[in-house]
Amino acid sequence: MNKYYAEENEIMYHTGLSKELIQNASYAVVPGDPARVEPLAKSIGQNAAFLTSHRDYTTWITYVNKQPVLVMSTGMGGPCVTFAVEELARLGITRFIRVGTTGSIQENIELGDVVINNASVRMEGASKSYAPVEYPAVADLMLTHGLIEAAKELQIPYHVGISVTTDSFWPGQERYDSFGGYVRRKLQGSLHEFQQLGCTNYEMENATLFTLTSVLGLQAASICAVVAKRTEKESIAPCEVYQQAEQRFQQVVKTFLWKELSCEK
């Protein structure tokens, strides 16, 4: 596959970034929520600085062992992820670490735990523009192992498994607390089916990220903190649990990156 890298002074149309701005960074930490970017950048590295904010994509740069690491929001859902991956890849980013929140669907996965997904069920649509449905959405083995080792070292409760990536937060995840409360017949019972298949959690970006990076010869991993336990109820956890969950994925990513970039120097 041919690779079309950006020109030296070219500014990416959707993200507003250029090669000069990202300073030869090879890692990008990619939350969905723009509000998570600044605290992530400040928590995982040193001398964090704002770069730009354009559409869904708010970007900061931080430094881990004096090496630049990009932290950029992707917005919610697979289509937004495709813009992020395509434009960051053209600028030279090769490794993506997704962080976010998620709803667990297995009884043993508690609120505040983290889930490190090694693969995803492709219940979204964006990845289908890049590969047929038979193509697996799989995380990079080495990056995933690094996140697992960091969680172990920090003694943060973690789980490894297959997520279910959807385009819809409500009917796509068989939620009945929407405005209409309607779930298509095709999706009724899907939560139970995915539980029986051993899937661990619902989220909205992994399958697109994993598929794109595999197709494009890049690497990606994902860590999500549990803020809804779907085996008990559909609602989001209280604020203190939400904050603890975010702190945990920040700690794991920080530990992973400092080890990884210390080895690479």
From TrEMBL:
<dbReference type="Pfam" id="PF01048">
    <property type="entry name" value="PNP_UDP_1"/>
</dbReference>
<dbReference type="InterPro" id="IPR035994">
    <property type="entry name" value="Nucleoside_phosphorylase_sf"/>
</dbReference>
<protein>
    <recommendedName>
        <fullName>Uridine phosphorylase</fullName>
        <ecNumber>2.4.2.3</ecNumber>
    </recommendedName>
</protein>
<dbReference type="GO" id="GO:0004850">
    <property type="term" value="F:uridine phosphorylase activity"/>
</dbReference>
<keyword id="KW-0808">Transferase</keyword>
<keyword id="KW-0328">Glycosyltransferase</keyword>
<dbReference type="GO" id="GO:0005829">
    <property type="term" value="C:cytosol"/>
</dbReference>
<feature type="domain" description="Nucleoside phosphorylase">
    <location>
        <begin position="27"/>
        <end position="257"/>
    </location>
</feature>
<dbReference type="InterPro" id="IPR000845">
    <property type="entry name" value="Nucleoside_phosphorylase_d"/>
</dbReference>
<dbReference type="GO" id="GO:0009116">
    <property type="term" value="P:nucleoside metabolic process"/>
</dbReference>
